[in-house]
Amino acid sequence: xxxxxxxxxxxxxxxxxxxxxxxxxxxxxxxxxxxxxxxxxxxxxxxxxxxxxxxxxxxxxxxxxxxxxxxxxxxxxxxxxxxxxxxxxxxxxxxxxxxxxxxxxxxxxxxxxxxxxxxxxxxxxxxxxxxxxxxxx
Length: 137
Known about the structure:
- This protein has a four-stranded parallel sheet, sandwiched between helices.
- The chain is elongated, with a radius of gyration of 19 Å.
- By secondary structure, the protein is α/β, with parallel strands linked by helices.
- Strand 1, helix 1 and strand 2 form a beta-alpha-beta unit.
- The chain contains six helices and four strands, in the order βαββαβαααα.
- The termini are far apart.
């Protein structure tokens, strides 16, 4: 059991609840960080922070985290931002849209090849036209 490692879980709801449980069982300190879209689940954690707190930046600046991970879909962006802020391992927040939205992904993968980019743009436009046909008014 290692009690010197602190893991912060952003939005420890859904599967994140079980991640927090396992971290605590293994002797880690576990901090819950709640984004504006998540609510406290009343679970056992070492401490918690809510980004809606007016002192959020000051509070997390005092904390020491060894890892910051998302516990739910709603926590992905905030987890990436915080990990970068603390210099921890994680995805670059500058590339979040590339990984979470297919249009920027296609652009980033093909922007060096003009023909591929044109083909991707045509494909996106076709998909948008198809999607518009399925919209319910």
